[in-house]
Amino acid sequence: MKLGGLLLMKEKHNHLGKKFYKLTVIDKEEVYNGHYKWICLCECGNKIKICGAELTKGHKKSCGCWRKKRTSYEPVEQRFLKFTEKTNSCWLWKGYKVKYKNYESGYMSYKGKPQRSSRVSYELHKGIIPKGLYVCHTCDNGLCVNPDHLFLGTQKDNMQDMWKKNRGNPCRGSKKFFAKITEEDVIRIRKEYPTSSGPNLAKKYGICKQNVLNIVNRVAWKHVA
Q: Are residues 63 and 90 in the same domain?
């Protein structure tokens, strides 16, 4: 390589006096065998040592003050209210949402991780949620964050509440593609069983004797009263 090329390369890697975003290179410090770290003065007045690649590739743009300023969050109460629309009954969540089947829930960043907006609302208005408990809705609206509509329950309570409000698996009973009878047939079988035998009912409704016994004993079709 010619001398001019060497000088040009040397000049290219000399960052003294150059400015990279909020950092100005004011000195250098040899680390080992001709490798340097550059001493930079940030616009905020702090000094830091950085390797040349971080400067030239834009990986480091300040001493850290710029990032802190960009990522400084407003109080959680303000963020919560910003995405909440209050009505006469429910408080509707207008922020990030996740839909699962026919049930939709709101989410927001809280305590360093995404959490359901209903849990955030409960903690903001009613207090800490004990470990292992769930936040349930009396209004059955997953996007509601009105603390008056929220209550705590166990996993069992939550599942029972879900089935009670018909939010479980919608494909059951006569809705299953292989169902041979309807909910009305189930009610009739239970009424007729004391006076008609299992085999006769099985033949009448086109099902097997064991299915008749399961229906009568409420092992099957439990959702039919």
A: no
Distance CA 33, CA 55 (A): 20
Whether 104 and 116 have beta carbons less than 8 Å apart is answered as no
Give residue 140's pLDDT band: very low, low, confident or very high (50, 70, 90). Answer: confident
Query: DSSP string spanning 159-203?
Result: HHHHHHTT-S-S--GGGSTT--S-HHHHHHHHHHTTTS-HHHHHH
Q: Which of 70, 97, 112 is the last residue of a domain?
A: 70
Angle at 75 between CA 74 and CA 79, to 5 degrees: 75
Pairing of strands 23-32, 35-42: antiparallel
Given a contact cutoff of 8 angstroms between Cβ atoms, the answer to whether 21 and 61 are in contact is yes
70: pLDDT strictly greater than 70: no
User: What is d(CA 122, CA 77) in angstroms, rounded to the nearest whole number?
Assistant: 12
Structure tokens given for 34: 């001709």
**Does the model's pTM come out above 0.90?**
no
Sheet holding 23-32, edge to edge: 19-20, 23-32, 35-42, 47-51
Structural domain span for residue 21: 3-70
Instruction: Report the distance separating Cα 177 and Cα 206, nearest Å.
Output: 16
**Residue 67 confidence (pLDDT) above 80:** no
pLDDT at 107: 93
Q: Which of 76-90, 115-129, 153-167 has the lowest mean pLDDT?
A: 153-167
